[in-house]
């Protein structure tokens, strides 16, 4: 049974859920006034006179919902009963709508038409003045590129498809003064959320002069759907009517030069109709090509295949895709299977499809060969048909890179496909299928580099994406000479049946390959880290400066400003989300408080700021850059618990005895005033000082004393401590991620803060789970399956050591004992190996899971409460806790376990990608380091032994790399792998795990897109003299997380 949330002291004003859901985050200038004008929905089943003008929701933080047109406010003080009703004319639109439950209801929407919607032209005196925001409106003298087709001043008006497909062009700074109709905007919103967001951002950009015209509410541009007219045709007509109206309207403006509105459409029929009606209309290509001063723009045109265009060059290569409706029938009947398409990184002719649903068998289907892959792209949702059993294949172990230049050389492909069909053992065969249709494309813009055509002055070139799982893409560009050697972004437009590669267009250049800023941008894009500056809409939800704490803020809050609170962080930390205090109570017990930034006070559910934060999910820390989850005003100022300023906090306060046993726990929203922002070193110095005895120092000593007891108890209970001061990177006790590669010495104060954060997280987890057993957001760390430990156990055994793995406690204890007086580094190596056996910790919703255990911390329950500035999970936990103690109100999504589970999925994904991005950033900086350093020889230890390589760790740099023993085009050395020991014999030399070796390290820049660190074994010498020439290596485990996973 889901627990009923407590009655909130004040609600988020979601009276009438329907109303709330329909409200969109409007720009602030429109938020209040826009509420007055709302389509009233009445459903036939519920009676005609249902709630009209539900105004409540729009006032506050808009929730997600249907598209809201940008409407001007009703004029102030208008006569009549309603606001400005006198100037509005009501009509009604009736349509059928399918409800969630599947019933069809008749919806009558009262639709108000108005005369006071401005055209947006700056020179117009006929329309009422344009309200402030969003966006700047159309210029009186349109600036922008000169067109040879229409030399006079003009505005552009695109139709829906043009906007959907050519958004890259419309975003170009050269394109200005564009009218975006409400009809178009609504259609775009329904068809592509990302494009909708992009166009909204463009409309708000003051440089672009895009104007959103509310044609559907304008008395002269609104049209009824005709009998027998499809809604598509009706919308096309509505757009043409608006163009005509604009042209007539603009003629009335008394100006020397008349401004013309040009209709842009790629739809042949629509264009013909427009021309018949006397409208100037061009296709996007015609217009863009007429901008003769900007020839490069042509590159950014999407090549969308109009009907007829596809049969351009002869031979059909691929089978037809089955249409969606038939696919859905087939999936229902079980004839086809639906799944996510995962291209192989190593072999471009192979992929797997992960079938959705719970079916145990046929979960993973192999697809082999170009025709069976049938134009699916990595991450697409596809439908597959299983092949007959006698056609099943085994996963190939061949590495095949698509390096063909001649794209029409299909025979060659067929030859390559035969390589895959090597005879295999019957039990190696796996379910095999072919892609019969695409359910959903998941194309995104791809980073990569141009592979310039060898044909002189060719315009068509192939683009090679950085991600090997993405096929090469054919683009047209005249700038090939400039773009060569640059990292560029390309979007896929389509993949016709007669084309070996998908067609796409150039979007933009990121800069020269190898350049630090370019490469950072690439790794952010490739790891799907949202990193654009926060939009105006998002920023509009920030508190207005100067900010101060109001009377209202003090409600439900305790004033704790008198306490000696301080924060302890790494040097240079500006996003301080935790602070602590400790004091002796009169009864002799100790009070300890953990105070966490009250981010959920500033980020209210459902508004644009909240949506952006949940999408980002986490702050991403790269070597030289931080990508914030929330805008800087919050992260580094209002939420940051800096010293000597009043800050809002969420406090967890314990009463403890001197044995660090918790006697009482309470939670409260609070206001604090930190007395000091200290670094770990400063805090340590105070604790150790013989002369300092001020309140802060006393408080720190108290905390430190308790933390030591807490830590000991935690470890006695079986928590793992895999970090070691000898390793040059510090491991996070909770996630086992390396936090800092350069931390040499850990101070007691590091672990002091950590102990109390862990304790607060456990206390909060208990509280929210007790209060909301069905929808508490928790974090678990599953115990690894026993087989994960094989590698560790075997490696230890080879040194005559025993590692027990039946429990975390047994593991921790045997690791403590494992050591060798003659080999002090051995223990560190064992701990490093142990971290590799671990599973990922994940967020989950308590109502959707049974296993809560946190293995690494040996805690039955755990969550994240202490870093709401940089982790979104903590914000949800804050909201849950606030509802639990009656300090804030709930909202529907917070108590919906399915929504919560979906959110956890996204957060887990974002955290994983953030981690990969961090590793990639470290790998890139390692490369830079060795580029400057040149070739060096260093001591290393063998961490893993593989069939054809060894993985080594170089303690001096905390760097890991793989030494391979075979190379393309070179004679293969004799390799003998023994899985039991484990060991690898290369010619006459046998290598074991933990062997100390010497390696030669250098940067291999031969492939500019995939630079890598090469490592070659120098000692022991395993081959002839010309060692470096025969061996190659790469840092595989660091920059290719996917591979690493397979190894474990
Ligand atoms: Zn006007």
From TrEMBL:
GO molecular function: 3'-5'-RNA exonuclease activity; endonuclease activity; RNA binding
Coiled coil: none
Localization in the cell: Cytoplasm; Nucleus, Nucleolus; Nucleus, Nucleoplasm
One Pfam entry name: OB_Dis3
Residue ranges with Basic residues bias: 12-24
GO cellular component: cytoplasmic exosome (RNase complex); nuclear exosome (RNase complex); nucleolus; nucleoplasm
Residue span(s) of domain RNB: 557-887
Region (Disordered): 1-26, 46-86, 1029-1048
Presence of keyword Nucleus: yes
Main subcellular location of this protein, as a coarse class: cytoplasm
Polar residues biased stretches: 1030-1039
Cofactor(s) the protein requires to work: Mg(2+); Mn(2+)
Keyword Acetylation: yes
GO terms for biological process, alphabetical: CUT catabolic process; nuclear mRNA surveillance of mRNA 3'-end processing; rRNA catabolic process; rRNA processing
Domain PIN: 154-272
Subunit structure: Component of the RNA exosome complex; within the complex interacts with EXOSC4, EXOSC7 and EXOSC9 of the exosome core complex (Exo-9). The catalytically inactive RNA exosome core complex (Exo-9) associates with the catalytic subunit EXOSC10/RRP6. Exo-9 may associate with DIS3 to form the nucleolar exosome complex, or DIS3L to form the cytoplasmic exosome complex. Exo-9 is formed by a hexameric base ring consisting of the heterodimers EXOSC4-EXOSC9, EXOSC5-EXOSC8 and EXOSC6-EXOSC7, and a cap ring consisting of EXOSC1, EXOSC2 and EXOSC3; DIS3 associates with the base ring of Exo-9.
Homology family: Belongs to the RNR ribonuclease family.
UniProt name for this protein: Exosome complex exonuclease RRP44
